[in-house]
Amino acid sequence: MNLGIKDEEFVRGKVPMTKEEIRILTIAKAQIAHNAVICDVGAGTGSLSIEAARLAPAGHVYAIEKNPEGIGLIAENAKRFGVENITVIDGAAPDALAGLPELDVALIGGSGRKLSDILDIIGERLRLNGRIVANAITVQTVAACLDYFHTHADRYTYEAIQVQISRLERVGPYDMAKALNPIYIITAQRK
């Protein structure tokens, strides 16, 4: 299965979407096995959920999204890419995490200022050696994430990278670099 679906292949609407290069890095950090159980918190259009579901055909993805447009887009994109191992959960985390099974991977794209509560609940369900991969665009979210994993260093090892992607865009006879927003990718593994 190829990793890195082109952005334009997804049905988008006005819902935020993790861009292709960031998806590839996020999925690589997640180390998804073919039978993994994954939750995607703040799934948006479902781009990460779709990539994860394709890598885990014997597993299952729980895509958590509170935006009604996003919920519809996740279902539409799952159908478009022929993945049936996704359950869309309509709601906001941490409440929408209730009832999830044990997890191998948790992807966090949005936390609605409830990151610590979300991480507490995910931590209760995360299997030994399970991974959490959080994408953050604000320094406040990065700080909250790092503070959480530092405070819980007895349960997690963690790392963080900052990624800046620029794509060449044709401008007349020239090619010019057009920068995307920098993203922090924080990865934690349960001890």
From TrEMBL:
Classification via NCBIfam families: CbiT
Top-rank lineage group of the source organism: Bacteria
GO molecular function: precorrin-6Y C5,15-methyltransferase (decarboxylating) activity; protein methyltransferase activity
InterPro entries with a match to the protein in the record: Cbl_synth_MTase_CbiT, Cobalamin_biosynth_MTase, Methyltranfer_dom, SAM-dependent_MTases_sf
Gene Ontology BP terms: cobalamin biosynthetic process; methylation
The UniProt record lists the keyword Cytoplasm: no
Name assigned to this protein: Precorrin-6y c5,15-methyltransferase
Gene3D superfamilies assigned: Vaccinia Virus protein VP39
Domain Methyltransferase: 35-95
Pathway given in the UniProt record: Cofactor biosynthesis; adenosylcobalamin biosynthesis
Protein EC: 2.1.1.132
Enzyme class, UniProt record, top EC level: transferase
Gene, per the UniProt record: cbiE
Keyword Transcription regulation in annotation: no
CDD domains: AdoMet_MTases
SUPFAM superfamilies: S-adenosyl-L-methionine-dependent methyltransferases (SSF53335)
Keyword entries, A-Z: Cobalamin biosynthesis, Methyltransferase, S-adenosyl-L-methionine, Transferase
